[in-house]
Please model this.
Amino acid sequence: MKKSNIAFSMLEAVLVVAAIVILAGIVILAVKPAQELTERQEANQGAEQEANRTGDNIILEADNKNSIADNKNSIADDENSIADDENSIKENSNEVNTDESSFDEPLINTERETLIEENIVE
Model:
């Protein structure tokens, strides 16, 4: 009987295993840097977002300080306007009082003349 030589030799088996190990190593080396790169990018994005938030907070604080200063200036302007209005009212009331005093006498005389005509007062 003839024996068929179907089985692998030890050398062939070692070569197949070595080829598989080499290919697995190449795949691992190709995937690992990609993962590290992704992790680095995510870390950088987080740092950039934090820096942006910090920068935005600084800008908001500056805007708030400017807004407060504007409000203080507006309040001072309003106070000056109120003082001007008060002075204007005082000036107008003095003018009105002056005008009223000049009209008091003729009004009294006119009323007296009316009463005399009606023979109520002599």
In short: The first helix runs from residue 10 to 117. The helical segments are 10-117.
